[in-house]
Input
Amino acid sequence: MTKSLAIAALFLLATHTSFANDLFKNADMAAGKKLVDHHCISCHAASFGGDGSEIYTRELRKIKTPSGLVVQVRNCNTMLDLKWFEEDEVNAAAYLNQQYYHFK
Output
């Protein structure tokens, strides 16, 4: 499956009301936290100050759906050339959802 087709599929699935539960049901939150702490916090803190969590909690945040969260994590993975696997992206997104976004 091509990357753009996979992203399109995620957006289509986002309309399902229990999508976050489905998307994140097999995620490893501890692994996601480790990835976020190691790779994301310093970049976000440099951009937003403090501990960097303002990027997730700001009033006009860009992320509105669980699939949008995965897509944004994937964008960061690609832009920073982290070489995460898809399950790493989902683990990180699931952790961020649990901590900040609370999508159902």
In short: The CA atoms of residues 29 and 95 lie 5 Å apart. The chain has one domain: 22-101.
